[in-house]
Amino acid sequence: MLGKGVVGGGGGTKAPKPSFVSYVRPEEIHTNEKEVTEKEVTLHLLPGEQLLCEASTVLKYVQEDSCQHGVYGRLVCTDFKIAFLGDDESALDNDETQFKNKVIGENDITLHCVDQIYGVFDEKKKTLFGQLKKYPEKLIIHCKDLRVFQFCLRYTKEEEVKRIVSGIIHHTQAPKLLKRLFLFSYATAAQNNTVTDPKNHTVMFDTLKDWCWELERTKGNMKYKAVSVNEGYKVCERLPAYFVVPTPLPEENVQRFQGHGIPIWCWSCHNGSALLKMSALPKEQDDGILQIQKSFLDGIYKTIHRPPYEIVKTEDLSSNFLSLQEIQTAYSKFKQLFLIDNSTEFWDTDIKWFSLLESSSWLDIIRRCLKKAIEITECMEAQNMNVLLLEENASDLCCLISSLVQLMMDPHCRTRIGFQSLIQKEWVMGGHCFLDRCNHLRQNDKEEVPVFLLFLDCVWQLVHQHPPAFEFTETYLTVLSDSLYIPIFSTFFFNSPHQKDTNMHQRQLSLPLTQSKSSPKRGFFREETDHLIKNLLGKRISKLINSSDELQDNFREFYDSWHSKSTDYHGLLLPHIEGPEIKVWAQRYLRWIPEAQILGGGQVATLSKLLEMMEEVQSLQEKIDERHHSQQAPQAEAPCLLRNSARLSSLFPFALLQRHSSKPVLPTSGWKALGDEDDLAKREDEFVDLGDV
């Protein structure tokens, strides 16, 4: 604990040791060094977590214009996280209204959450990577959850600076082996401490029984069957051990295609139509396989088509929709709007913020995803058509669109347990490559492609527009997005169920990580086999494709008709997708930027103020009653429910941040266009237990 309080008072007299966290200017550390009485703060380690390196006399800058204030403490790096330990963390204001993560602290950064590391050399900011010849006087860490940390190392011992900076760079930027992830250390050390929540009924879809239950729930068991042909992953390592296919499909055909070209059932509608997905067909085909394909496709027609069988809707997501490169590029631009180092930088970009937002195309990508999901919903709901989603590996955009369709059409998926089961079914068991898409191993040839985050952003649009329809809040979604980078639960750290089962249950095998290479050619039917399939099927293929103009007309009629009626929150749910209706997910993206917050504002604070006024009216009414009934005993004053609306933020419950800036705060109207807050006061704040998904 430092011997001085907030700089600015006391003259040259030594101030008494305060009971709050002290703030100092960087230049004062050296002059007051002898007055510092270091109070060791305990580093809390998770099971299996090991301390790697640390540095003392580190100044963590508070979020302030020009970075002139900070908190003194230790900077440590473990095999799980980077943590800053202030001298007296117990002295921090423990505001129970603000969100507290149960796994990581306010000043903790998991190694997987680190996005970029910068060093400041003679007032110049440079990206840090590899071996350094010169070490910085200031360290800046940009996080994937959009936090920005700044540490002054000017007064730290030189050897400690070398150890901590080199350690952080190595453990966050260098390529890793799968078996070296902290996930495995934690799983081994904590296996005897695992407690199963008896209230957890999330369907894991790792047994045949789970798939049969889902078929029965959606009434799809008349035309589809759950199969165990891939049990032990003996047919395909990309598919789950159990899945659902059309009933007439012989299991030997599944084995013959090695998991490719198989129509996988996703969900059935109440009217009998179904949503399916299919991965690309094999490159090489002989006459025997072509004959099998003909029989194979005939089985599909007889099962997934309602009479007349020739009518079906196909969506080739590999060629007629988004590319992964578009998603990656858009988010790379989009996130830069929120990685703000200081107030000056914020105001410098403020004048062109909305033009930068538009040029990133992130909101337009969200709109396109929602529009595609509505188009498919219209085919299934209004036209009773089966829909077959096509993608090269059926593990990226298929997961996204299929999940959105089910969220719109199935109210069960809008419950917390239903939503977690949906993620487990479509993303985890669907083989989404979380390990590669999040680049958890820091492979040099890969970049983060946030497909799952795009899905959560699309879900947030629905939650924001129709909050009564959901059993969970935007806070739940925000914490879920943060959990992508917390290597404790295995949900978001593998490319397939096979990879997870092999490495979590048979670690001694140390199997190498298999990485699928995407074909440079786009489109579902590869060039080598395209003409063969068309010659075989002739006109039948053309009947799979509907006129785009007709689809547009049907879509617009369906969309306008639904929005003209009152909303049934227990039925079909469609989002507004007009330009102004697609908004920035403020709670996630703006929560660490003080200038973007309205102190004492937002719907939560407004509701809190209304409750205060209601309590005051009730109290006055009771006093009036007492005067009219003076012979009765005085009534007890009504308990205070919420008296701290001024302490709430428009980005509740995450942050109540302030910068000591001389510049004016951003006007309320400036952020109103980005989206109002959901009503969180009526809902319990949830913490995501990743074991549930």
Automatic annotation (TrEMBL):
GO cellular component, one term: sarcoplasmic reticulum
Myotubularin phosphatase domain residues: 205-589
PROSITE patterns linked to this entry: PPASE_MYOTUBULARIN (PS51339)
Alphabetized SUPFAM superfamilies for the sequence: (Phosphotyrosine protein) phosphatases II, PH domain-like
InterPro entries to which the protein is assigned, alphabetical: MTMR12-like_C, MTMR12_PTP, Myotubularin, Myotubularin-like_Pase_dom, PH-like_dom_sf, Prot-tyrosine_phosphatase-like
Keyword Protein transport: no
Gene3D superfamilies: Pleckstrin-homology domain (PH domain)/Phosphotyrosine-binding domain (PTB) (2.30.29.30)
UniProtKB keywords: Cytoplasm, Sarcoplasmic reticulum
Signal peptide (from-to): none
UniProt cross-references to CDD domains, sorted A to Z: PTP-MTMR12 (cd14594)
Subcellular location: Cytoplasm, Myofibril, Sarcomere; Sarcoplasmic reticulum
Family listed: Belongs to the protein-tyrosine phosphatase family. Non-receptor class myotubularin subfamily.
Subunit organization: Heterodimer with lipid phosphatase MTM1. Heterodimer with lipid phosphatase MTMR2.
Role summary: Acts as an adapter for the myotubularin-related phosphatases. Regulates phosphatase MTM1 protein stability and possibly its intracellular location. By stabilizing MTM1 protein levels, required for skeletal muscle maintenance but not for myogenesis.
Name the UniProt record assigns to this protein: Myotubularin-related protein 12
